[in-house]
């Protein structure tokens, strides 16, 4: 199973990848640099020949297309609308969170500032993907 990670900040990508690996996240992580790149990937011939991602984890504020617009477009696409979407963002704005949830996001999580803070995020991603940790325990 694959996690599609949509993030335009290279440092955040690197920290998140390290955090997920340090928490034993065993699934493939594919990175798209903004909402438009994610939609292009999901609608490509490459993606059509593979199973859909088990979840999409996205930043909110990005260049070209932000996470809210991407989520809106995902929900309009019958093939993509059921992929769970989790926001991982530095925005603590209640309006952003409310809009993400209104559009159908599964979770709205704040970006951690260090590797030690990734356990809860990895648990939420496993939960929405319906998978278990390597030791066999279910997340939740």
CATH homologous superfamily annotation = Response regulator
How would you characterize the largest beta sheet?
5 strands, parallel
Radius of gyration: 14 Å
Poorly predicted regions are none
CATH C-level class: Alpha Beta
Helix content: 40-55%
CATH architecture: 3-Layer(aba) Sandwich
What's the CATH topology name?
Rossmann fold
Q: How confident overall, as mean pLDDT?
A: 90
Strand order within the widest beta sheet: 2-1-3-4-5
How many strands in all?
A: 5
Keywords, separated by commas or semicolons:
single chain, 140 residues, alpha/beta, Rossmann fold, 5-stranded parallel beta sheet, 6 helices
Describe this structure in words.
With 140 residues, the protein is of the alpha/beta class. It has one domain: Response regulator (Rossmann fold), CATH 3.40.50. 40% of the residues lie in helices and 16% in strands. The protein contains six helices and five strands, in the order E-H-E-H-H-E-H-E-H-E-H. The protein has a five-stranded parallel β-sheet, with helices on both faces. Helix 1 (10-22) links the parallel strand 1 and strand 2 (28-32). Helix 2 runs parallel beside helix 4. The longest helix has 13 residues, at 10-22. The protein starts with a strand and ends in an 11-residue tail after the last helix.
């Amino acid at each position: 199973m694959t996690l599609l990670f949509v993030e335009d900040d290279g440092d955040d990508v690197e920290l998140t990848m390290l955090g997920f690996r340090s928490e034993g996240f065993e699934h493939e992580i594919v990175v798209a640099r903004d909402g438009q790149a994610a939609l292009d990937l999901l609608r490509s011939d490459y993606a059509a020949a593979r199973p859909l991602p088990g979840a999409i984890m996205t930043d909110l504020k990005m260049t070209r297309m932000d996470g809210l617009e991407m989520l809106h477009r995902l929900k309009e696409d019958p093939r993509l609308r059921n992929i769970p979407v989790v926001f991982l963002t530095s925005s603590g704005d209640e309006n952003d969170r409310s809009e993400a949830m209104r559009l159908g996001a599964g979770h709205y999580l704040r970006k951690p500032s260090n590797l030690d803070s990734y356990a809860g995020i990895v648990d939420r991603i496993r939960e929405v993907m319906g998978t278990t940790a390597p030791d066999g325990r279910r997340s939740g």
